[in-house]
Amino acid sequence: MSTAQLHLFQLVSPALPVGAFSYSEGLEVLVQAGRITTPAALEAWLRAELERGALGVEAAALVPLAAALNRARSALAASMEGELAAALTELRELDGWLLAARESAELRAQQRQMGQSLLRLLADLGWPLPRGSDGLAWPAAWAWAGVCLDLPPADLVEAYLYGWVANQISAAVRLVPLGPTQGQRLQLALAPLITERASALGASDPRRLWSGGVGAGLAQLSHRELYSRLFRS
């Protein structure tokens, strides 16, 4: 087993201290509304998000985000201020575009909080961001983790999708309720789709993609109106 694979396992571990466990991304709304009450309904929801949701746009953006961060790091080391400025401009524009595309304030807050938590962790481990690239949200922070850990772009995209699915299933175990064995069965069932989508998204331009996750957007917007909540989104 390669060091890169072990680094990948660490990045997708539920022990990663970024607070992902506290978010449901609208799933809590759907469960309370009676829209998702069975494993089959949850699987259909997760498949729809993998195939048509905003998650795919974010995953496709990981490759150009990582490329911009790599260029910024190299330019900083070589004292190439012009190249550094160009790389940082591309990075900030894509990071801001992704954040603006998320419908709810709760989800944007989630993206910022998780991104900053991961960036602080990486800095504490000896990988501070290149100068001028602070304040990045979750996808860009994930891309920086991939750069720091020398992860291949294809693996980085696949891990991003896998981690999102695992977190949604973890939330569903507490909400639906869904038994842990059924949760593991569902994670296995979705593995081929995760691999397929990662392959396609890793070669896609995120700005040419679209999100059909209207239901997810509406659920996320409705979360703050819930009377009783377990999750932050």
Architecture overview:
The chain contains 10 helices and no strands. It is mostly helical and 233 residues long. It has one domain: Urease accessory protein UreF (Orthogonal Bundle), CATH 1.10.4190.10. The longest helix has 24 residues. The radius of gyration is 18 Å and the shape is globular. The mean pLDDT is 91.
Short description:
The protein is mostly helical and 233 residues long. It is built from ten helices and no strands. The radius of gyration is 18 Å and the shape is globular.
Order of helices and strands: HHHHHHHHHH
Distance between the amino and carboxyl termini: 37 Å
- The poorly predicted ranges are none
The CATH fourth-level homologous superfamily: Urease accessory protein UreF
Instruction: Quickly give the structural class.
Output: mainly alpha
Helix content class: 55-70%
Mean pLDDT: 91
Please tell me what the overall shape is.
Answer: globular
Largest sheet geometry = none
Strand composition percent: under 5%
Q: How many individual helices?
A: 10
CATH fold-level topology: Urease accessory protein UreF
- Strand tally, please? 0
How many discrete domains? 1
Query: Cα-atom Rg, whole angstroms?
Result: 18 Å
Architecture (CATH level 2) name: Orthogonal Bundle
What is the CATH top level name? Mainly Alpha
